Amino acid sequence: MDLSKNCLTFVYRLGYNQNPFFRYTPTKNPIMEATFWLLPIITFLGSLVFIQKLLMKKSEKFRLPPGPPALPVIGNLHQLAAKNMSPHRRLRELARVYGPIMHLRLGEVPTLVVSSAEAAKEVLKNHDVNFANRPKLMVGKILYYNFSDIGLSPYGEYWRQLRKIATLELFTVKRVQSFRHIREEEVSKFIKSLASEAASGSVVNLSDKLFGLLFNITSRIVFSHEGEDQDAFRVFLSNLLDALAGFSIADLYPSIKLLESISGFRKKLQEMIKESDRMLDPIIEEHIYKKRQGKTEEDLVDEIFAAGSETSFSTLEWAMSELLRNPKVMERAQAEVRDAFKKKGITGESSLNELKYLKLVIKETLRLHPVVPLLVPRESIEHCQIHGYDVPPKTRLMVNAFAIATDPQYWEEPEVFKPERFEGSSIDYKGTNFEFIPFGSGRRMCPGIALGVANMELPLAMMLYHFDWKLPAGMKPNDLDMDESSDISVRRKNALRVILTSYASSSGI
Ligand code: HEM
């Protein structure tokens, strides 16, 4: 019996994968999947209860943070899976009951969940070094050839060298600027393609178009090459981001090596390697060939591809969704960009500095829809104390950036999309204002902020300048669903479909 296929089909039937975009990925709720997996093997794991009890005795001398009561073997997985909510929303709910410093056991993994700015500052600033490690997730071991990438490699000399090269050589403002012509060319092609859709008056799948844009920009930046195989890459990215969350059964029970193979996760990752080699090898070979002949433009390392395209794509998709739901904000953003371009003409990225409100729209989108809401998991290196609670070594850390960015303690009307809230405020996403950390903070903070923001500003400005937007079939702004996929990276669950008309004075596409 193909148990793996049956389990996935079951989860699929539960309705967690209704997004036609991502229909090739068998399940979009990894926690449900993990919980489901536990049913047939729970007997096997029962033997662990005894060991666990011994461990619990040992941990009694610690003052662990509060948390919901855990069950033997599965710990708190059932509470996370309850209510069919995305993990970051469910964890926000639990934090409202148990507090901003919460202890959970996910499978056999002790996990610290931090959900306030004060506690985030404590772990990401005051105890930054101690939490600068990443857990040894299977995806890092298999897909990234024994943790050889920046994002998943353990804290130490190797990671420091990679990060230094990335920071000094790849992510400087000058380097990001050197890709300006790529962004301008690709955005111009994108706008032309939207203009032909506008002329036909048909309903446009904006999600597809935006993904294509970010895919092309990132391909050219990373490989100096136009993107191909976009659909396959989209599925690959979706699977990769699932794996990064660390919610696979093998990552929840890392001591039981057998689970890596019987859960089918190892096989899945190996298939992903084959798929990524199939897609990337020809591009890389051509790139090396061109480089030897001195024919390439400056490029970034290939592993950056996933981090770079999906995050900016998702954020743009959310920004357009919020603008469609909030016509007044849309109006103000369009007025600003149209006014600026009318005065100076469309001068590509050099016009962007004037667009103060547009920048606030992006900030507000990152607040309400941080695309990596729990940041990338970290792990404590040695024992430490956080606000008087003990945190043993090898505790997994999740910082709920979403819960913090929607906490009424720091934000007025936190659920309302209101870019004006940042007007005259010095709060920024650079990692020092802990109530707003969509890019994380500290040593492992996202090094790609400048590139990510550059990839979002020009497309957004151009979309707002060239077109007027409405929802299809007489839908009212509030009818637009904002359902989220339930992965580590939070995308729209359903494609964003729109009708657009060309703005009368728009020219120079
Ligand atoms: C909207 C855009 C983006 C968002 C919201 C975002 C968010 C994040 C977050 C939350 C983390 C984890 C930080 C932590 O653990 O504290 C991260 C890590 C990372 N990001 Fe980004 N990111 C974005 C764009 C990019 C881009 C464009 C690149 C590169 C081209 C990039 C490369 C990376 C890398 C390499 C890491 C791992 C850093 C490390 O572990 O040392 N990101 N990002």
Lay out the secondary structure.
Layout: H1 3-16, H2 30-46, H3 48-59, H4 77-81, H5 87-98, E1 101-106, E2 109-114, H6 117-126, H7 138-142, H8 157-170, H9 173-178, H10 180-200, E3 204-205, H11 206-223, H12 230-244, H13 249-252, H14 258-262, H15 265-292, H16 304-325, H17 327-344, H18 356-368, E4 378-379, E5 384-386, E6 389-391, E7 396-399, H19 401-405, H20 449-466, E8 467-470, E9 497-502
Parallel strand pairs: 2-7
Antiparallel strand pairs: 1-2, 3-9, 4-7, 5-6, 8-9
Bound molecules: protoporphyrin IX containing FE.
Provide an overview of this structure.
The protein is globular. The protein contains 20 helices and nine strands. It has 509 residues and is α+β, with helices and mostly antiparallel strands. Helix 10 (180-200) packs parallel to helix 20 and helix 11 packs antiparallel against helix 16. 51% of the residues lie in helices and 7% in strands. Mean pLDDT is 84; it is low at 1-27 and 296-300. Strand 1 (101-106) and strand 2 form a beta hairpin. The chain binds protoporphyrin IX containing FE (HEM).
How would you sum up this structure in a few lines?
By secondary structure, the chain is an alpha+beta fold. The protein has 20 helices and 9 strands.
